[in-house]
Amino acid sequence: MTTRYTVGIDLGTSNTVVAFAAEGEDRIQVLEIEQLVGRGELAARTLLPSVRYHPAAGELDPATLRLVASAGEGQGAPPAVLGEAVVGQYARELGAQVPGRAVASAKSWLSHAGVDRNAAILPWGAAEDVPRVSPVVASASYLAHVRAAWNRQHPGAALENQDIVLTVPASFDEG
User: Fold this and answer.
1) The Cα angle at residue 126 between residues 42 and 90, in degrees rounded to 5
2) Which one of 28, 32, 78, 133 is separated from 116 by 20 to 30 angstroms, measured CA to CA?
3) Which SUPFAM superfamilies match (predicted)?
4) What's the pLDDT band for 170 if we cut at 50, 70, 90?
5) 29-82 confidence digits (pLDDT tens)
6) Would the pTM of this model clear 0.90, i.e. be above it?
């Protein structure tokens, strides 16, 4: 029999965190989310920084990209590189070095009345050669990363088959 879980995902402005409990159990656990934490270094952390980094062509070495891709094999999108963007701790570090290539606080843009949430506007103010994504796509990439990490750790209990509570922004516009 497959174990079912109740899963809480906090899609935070700064970090995303996942807590879960097996059906019928009182013990709550925090998911260790595998992610790039440095060049060529993959590790599990309880917090996934809600940051995407769009590297320039050739900026990341092929070995780093292969490491991430192999970790996600058989589970859909790789955990730390979704398309050509790095998600998580290493994305935050790279973004501190080259801010114009980082998407941070995407969740805040979901509630901004003055922008189209589905328009590819992030990273805000980036140079023309930097790929852009919408606040919705950026937020979805963090959730896709969480899904891939969960599904690798729970191969018989895919995240999409669990009871999920998702918390999103605390401030939405009323429109």
Assistant:
1) 10
2) 78
3) Actin-like ATPase domain (SSF53067)
4) low
5) 999 999 999 988 889 999 999 999 999 988 888 777 666 555 444 444 444 444
6) no
Q: List, for residues 72-90, the tens digit of each pLDDT value.
A: 444 444 444 445 788 999 9
Residues 6+ apart with CB under 8 A from 119: 134
Tokens found for residue 135: 């606040």
Provide the b/e sequence for 46-61 (b: ≥16 CB within 10 Å): ebbbbbbbbbeeeebe
The angle subtended at Cα 32 by Cα 31 and Cα 35, nearest 5°, is 130
DSSP-derived pairing of the beta strands 81-82 and 85-87: antiparallel
Strand partners, 159: none
CB 76: neighbour CB atoms within 10 A? 14
